[in-house]
Amino acid sequence: MGKRYHHGEVRGEAIAAALAITEADGPDAVTMRAVANRVGVDHRAIYRHFTDRDRLLAEVAAEGFGDLLSALLSAEGEAGLQRDFTASIRFALARPHLHALMLSRPRELMFDGAALEAAVRAMLDHLMASARLALGETAESATCRDLVFSALGTSYGLVSLASSMTLAPRDPQEMEAFLTDQVSAVIEGQLLRLRASA
After folding, report:
1. Of the candidates 35, 26, 30, 34, which has an alpha carbon nearest to the alpha carbon of residue 54?
2. Of 100, 93, 192, which is closest to residue 147 (Cα–Cα)?
């Protein structure tokens, strides 16, 4: 212990510590005591900022969505869903524990008006804009949403299988290429279907 913090610093340090633990050992390893030990404060100091472990993990997930959006925005290549999901798959494979945490938060925490909701909505807004770019400015929001969620569902499912080794083990680059190809095929198929029904 022994460190002295201003009140606001403990919150930021706790989120950073929980993120580091998540990335190294998975979210199950995150406890209030483990975070307090990393920060160098009594565990009761963590509870002054987060009512429980789920609230702390929601902040970690918000950081993850922010990092993911940054990855999408800075990805190389022509803007659009294909580029977004290539970058998303690369992020998920590089940071599997964080990615799993991000997509496993309870709905009531994802949409309670806090930082996680803002981060999720920012990423979804970006993906919706990419879908509209692919479908055309006159595309209905519901159609754009369906395209985004088809790609998200495929991406998350395949990445989860890859992370759990349910998919046959592959070289990391080969796995990334395989997942990207599969998600790209879904996006292309959905675009053909949606354009045909427009």
Report:
1. 30
2. 192
Task: Say what angle helices 141-163 and 115-135 make with each other, to 10 degrees.
Answer: 110
pTM of the model: 0.89
Contact partners, residue 56, CB within 8 Å, separation at least 6: 14, 15, 18, 30, 32, 35, 46, 50
The first and second tokens of residue 83, run together, are 């580029």
Neighbours of 29 (CB within 10 A): 12
pLDDT digits (tens, 9 = 90+) for 79-121: 899 999 999 999 999 999 999 999 888 888 888 778 999 999 9
Buried/exposed code over 40-65 (b: 16+ C-beta within 10 A; e: otherwise):
ebeeebbeebbeebeebbbbbbbbbb
Closest CA to 148 of 126, 160, 131: 131
* Domains of the chain by start residue, with CATH: 1-50 (1.10.10.60), 61-197 (1.10.357)
Question: CB of 165 within 8 A of CB of 67?
Answer: no
